[in-house]
Specification:
There is one protein chain. The chain is built from ten helices and seven strands. With 252 residues, it is an alpha/beta fold. A seven-stranded mixed sheet has the order 3-2-1-4-5-7-6. Helix 1 crosses helix 9 and helix 6 runs antiparallel to helix 10.
Length: 252
């Protein structure tokens, strides 16, 4: 597991809530059609953060248990999702969820699996899943296709603290298949996007754990470059970030 992975978002909760992308509703339709996921099932959302991935399933009537070790993020999810009676949280980790044996039907991990200790959490997945349960790993992978997106990616590499080390794209399809072997893994990709004014783009950047925070010497130079980039590519004071939402599914 990456060092300080359970605390590194503590000072970014507000930006995370406001500016992180959600997930396409089509993901639930896909899982229901192809994997017989129905809303009488119990889901463990491991690394649930502020509840972005949990909400996707809560909105479709599922019971969701959010497993989140970061106190600030867990409490924010409880605040934001308090109207959902089927939502609860546990201060566990991917490696020690604190759940009962075979107590959930499905595991999901949205934008989180790359933080886990793969060897330990594989055993934990098997322990908490019902027989023939499923696991769903979800990432919004930011694209770098347009000129803006390419320069934005270079800006992140230039100013980030440890982006290359922690980028979720370090987890490739082969490593995911190896993790779940001998079970078969299916990859399904959905389109996603966010449209921002400058304040939104700044918030999106600052929601990332690798971005320098306000008390860091690199903070202002990063924002100066971001302003220049936004002015160069904005149209009607807006900029678009595109994502490929990757969904990996396996049945145990």
């Amino acid at each position: 597991m990456i060092q300080n992975s359970t605390t590194r978002f503590s000072n970014r909760v507000d930006n995370y809530v406001k500016y992180r992308p959600g997930y396409p509703m089509e993901i639930v339709d896909f899982l229901q059609a192809e994997y017989q996921l129905s809303n009488d099932k119990t889901i463990a959302d491991i690394g649930s953060g502020t509840g972005i991935s949990s909400k996707l399933f809560l909105d479709n009537g599922y019971k969701v248990i959010g497993i989140e070790p970061n106190k600030e993020m867990r409490e924010k999810s409880e605040e934001l999702l308090h109207n959902y009676k089927n939502f609860s949280t546990v201060a566990g980790t991917a490696e020690n969820t604190l759940l009962e044996n075979h107590s959930v039907d499905t595991i999901i991990a949205g934008q989180a699996f790359h933080w886990f200790d793969k060897t330990v959490c594989r055993k934990e997945f098997e322990r908490i899943l019902q027989p023939h349960g499923s696991a769903v790993l979800i990432w919004n992978e930011r694209l770098a296709d347009s000129d803006f997106e390419k320069e934005y990616d270079r800006l992140i590499v230039k100013h980030s603290i440890d982006y290359v080390k922690v980028d979720h794209r370090n987890i490739d399809e082969k490593s995911i298949k190896d993790f779940f072997a001998p079970h078969t893994v299916e990859l399904k990709i959905f389109s996603n996007r966010q449209i921002f004014d400058f304040d939104g783009l700044r918030g999106r950047l600052l929601s990332s754990s690798y971005a320098p925070s306000e008390n860091h010497a690199g903070y202002q130079p990063m924002l100066d470059d971001l302003k220049t980039l936004f002015k160069k590519y904005q149209t009607n004071n807006r900029i678009t970030i595109h994502y490929a939402t990757k969904v990996y599914v396996t049945k145990f």
